[in-house]
């Protein structure tokens, strides 16, 4: 994970401007602590803060074409870079480094702006063609890698990995939309990623568990491309457990570089939390070198301000989940690990959140999954990337692989419907695809464990502690007058008000607050899905326990039941028995 900053078309290209660019780029150094680079060409500046993952010795950025007329600053990974280098159009090109990202400059030389669909990876980059001073900026298909665009009063256009690097100097700015390219030649933004599912039309491809399994395994394996120590975030839930299981199977039969003789896995939670118990059980089953990390509610609360500064949001569920991930990433970095695999995206693709139990039909379920995937860059992608990059760790997400998305989102959504009468719980199509009796990927009760949102799984008292803390710092009068203090996207709870006040301290401009989505939600639903159950309208909370009548530790009125992990365990075992 790296940090990029590009400023194109500065009126003042003096030494003072260069110094300012360097100073702003330092705000991104947590993302790339290994090296800094800056290329200046007349009134154009491309800066880079590097986290060295591939070719740590020679892969410093910005990167160049052979004659150095094309310059590119990149944040991300191009998984198919070797195949691209060996392709007919590029095999005669000469490269300066072993970096996976250098291929971008060469692709541009051969294909102009039309090469983006050839890329398999996660990325955000700015490319400058010094021959005519034209440039492009591109963000990956789903928005796994963050990028912002801004405009200065002098007519300059800015691009940055994080908002903090351009918010002070731009009159207006916004999140760069995923799957888009900005072209100075063609003028403005256009979408380059147009998969069939984007139209939200209901697909009809029959479910094939072996195709789904094979495509996911390929997605995991390609993300093991690294020259540095790595691991897997393992909460013990279905998604992270499958990532770890597939990874360890591949590593056992390959010569892939590892940190020691075993795959390292990491889990965080309050002592006694559901995730810690499940994570250890999966780690023991798979034979990983497992690192169980603990935090207290107070330690999490003490980190909230830093979390909001780094993650750049005031969204309640994102902050709840980002805080333990932020704390875990610090511990991971202290152990010398630079890259981790994580399980984000599965719930959006397969309808895994518990509110999907109330989906009225396959059409509405499919449309909701499409809405959720399109919004990932504002929520889970934002959290996974910025919580880890705050400490110089890179998170990779196999479930958001383009090829896997094509397969998974092409399945007739009738197969994704939750059907207790047929023994189908949430994400049944994924569970079933990896339910191998002869060579099990996971224990049955883990494979069929109920969905637990990360902010819940680290310990139910975490969210309860956050609410109690906010109640002590936000008075009834403050919340009553919230619509006057925060007229845009007004917070409706004391917890939301508390986060919003911290956010405004760091990012006071209206453009900053507009980058954060709003609207009612229950158990991470979109506003549209709240309509599925009338009872939810009086229980609007992003926690999975707000899915009344679904979660085994659901809220009762305005109070939560005490955690009952034994009930969760028994339910999973009962479900697994029913499937058998």
UniProtKB/TrEMBL annotation:
Top-level division of the source organism's lineage: Eukaryota
Site (Important for beta-aspartyl-AMP intermediate formation): 344
Keywords: Amino-acid biosynthesis, Asparagine biosynthesis, ATP-binding, Glutamine amidotransferase, Ligase, Nucleotide-binding
PROSITE patterns assigned to the protein according to its UniProt record, in alphabetical order: GATASE_TYPE_2 (PS51278)
Residues the record lists as binding ATP: 233, 268, 342-343
UniProt-listed GO biological process terms: asparagine biosynthetic process; response to stress
Domain Glutamine amidotransferase type-2: 2-187
InterPro entries: Asn_synth_AEB, Asn_synthase, Asn_Synthetase, AsnB_N, GATase_2_dom, Ntn_hydrolases_N, Rossmann-like_a/b/a_fold
Reactions the enzyme catalyzes: L-aspartate + L-glutamine + ATP + H2O = L-asparagine + L-glutamate + AMP + diphosphate + H(+)
Known EC number: 6.3.5.4
EC top class, as a word: ligase
Pathway membership, UniProt: Amino-acid biosynthesis; L-asparagine biosynthesis
Record-level Gene Ontology MF annotations: asparagine synthase (glutamine-hydrolyzing) activity; ATP binding
Catalytic center residues: 2 (for gatase activity)
Binding site for L-glutamine: 100
Alphabetical list of Pfam families matching this protein: Asn_synthase (PF00733), GATase_7 (PF13537)
Designated name of the protein: Asparagine synthetase [glutamine-hydrolyzing]
